[in-house]
Amino acid sequence: MRDFKNTKRIVIKVGTSTLSKSGGIDKDYVRNIARQIADLRSQGRQVLLVTSGAIGMGAGPLKLKGPIVDLKLRQACASVGQPLLMHEYNTAFAELGLVDSQVLLTAEILSKRKSYLNLRNAIETLLALGVVPILNENDCVSTAEIGTAFGDNDKLSALVASKIDADLLILLTDIDALYDKDPRTHPDAKPIRVVKEITSQIAKAAGKKGSAYSTGGMKTKIEAVKIAATAGYPVVLAHGREPNILSRILAGEEIGTLFIPHGEKLSNRKRWILHSRPEGTIYIDEGAMAALKKKKSLLPKGITKIEGTFGVGAVVMINSRAKAVISLSSSELRELAGKHSSQIRQVLGPNRRDVAAVPEDILFLDETV
What is the CATH class of 9-270? Predict the structure, then answer.
């Protein structure tokens, strides 16, 4: 069950609480994790690192104490802290003869198909060159409130692992496993070593709070595991300060909690549709919904209402039951809603699709549960 000898591509996420020491970044720990990653690299494995810590790193020089909840202050801390954090990683990897790179992401980058593909190609090139990509949410310019876009990088790490077809995601945190109860308030709580499915009981056992500078917690890690399940890769949750934790996990030691993927593995394109932020909503009648369930195209005739402004190729919701890549813009759909598909080319020209969305670009959300 914990056989990782053929695991080649690994995403490792290190949380703020694991990186922190006395209100700042623990430089010795950064060097320790770099050494462990170097060991994995020497085994012929590819490693991507998703790191938190920029906000906490920037809070020190600005003489701010957590928790920092104001959005503008968090952006300022991230702006100050990100280069300081990367300097520590640069130094640590350089001492080991490795080259690292910085990749800053926003939800918009992962939701837009073109930028997503550019990101995927960039990461593939970096890995081929032997670089250790270090990824973080671009908190300074993120258009969503920090922490809501990805969830303290837990969701980001799962999305990255999904999009680059990783073999394993390792979440290093300040707790040694998932417990059946909150161990902070229940002394009789027991660790759960293997999880095959995220049940309601498992979700209930997840905590809700993160550290002073982060917004994550066990709940966001469970959300990351759900993303992993759609891509078919396992997740290991473990205490980041256990000695040689990475090599012990890869050696198959029963440490932390192993989440085994459950359910159908979706194609890369379906996963992109599922995890992209919808730019609008299309409402359709029951007849059109029944047709979609039979793997038919979405036709303008069945559309009753359009919400939002979006362009061709955007991901949108269909009612609250499905997501789709749309072939027509919101303005075009408003003009064509309720009309027969034969009228599309009469209105828009001969080179346009005569459907609003094709079956392969439609994903029902209940199919991913």
Answer: alpha beta
